[in-house]
Amino acid sequence: MCLGIPGELVERLPEHEDLAVVDVSGVRRRINIGLLADERLAPGDWVLVHVGFALSKISEKEAQAVLDYLRGLGQPYADELDALRASDIA
């Protein structure tokens, strides 16, 4: 991913403390949440994701505002989602 994009935390992975699953506009991917070790992240929380890492916890209102803006970009946003679909953290 090139953009910082909001993702909703869907699941923590107990076998990998620093990994979680997020949903970004219907695309689910594992991401690294190690940079937010001091946050109490739980399913339903929103995070800003960049290159497979959660950079910060954000509010749902902020997440929706950013997603609305990104959707308005059209093809660049679609390209970003395609890149997200093709990526994964093992």
TrEMBL record:
Pfam families assigned: HupF_HypC (PF01455)
GO biological process: protein maturation
Source organism, top-level taxon: Bacteria
Signal peptide interval: none
InterPro entries listed in its UniProt record: Hydrogenase_HupF/HypC (IPR001109)
An MF annotation (GO) of this entry: carbon dioxide binding
NCBIfam families, A to Z: hypC_hupF
Family (UniProt): Belongs to the HupF/HypC family.
PANTHER family in alphabetical order: HYDROGENASE MATURATION FACTOR HYBG
Protein name: HypC/HybG/HupF family hydrogenase formation chaperone
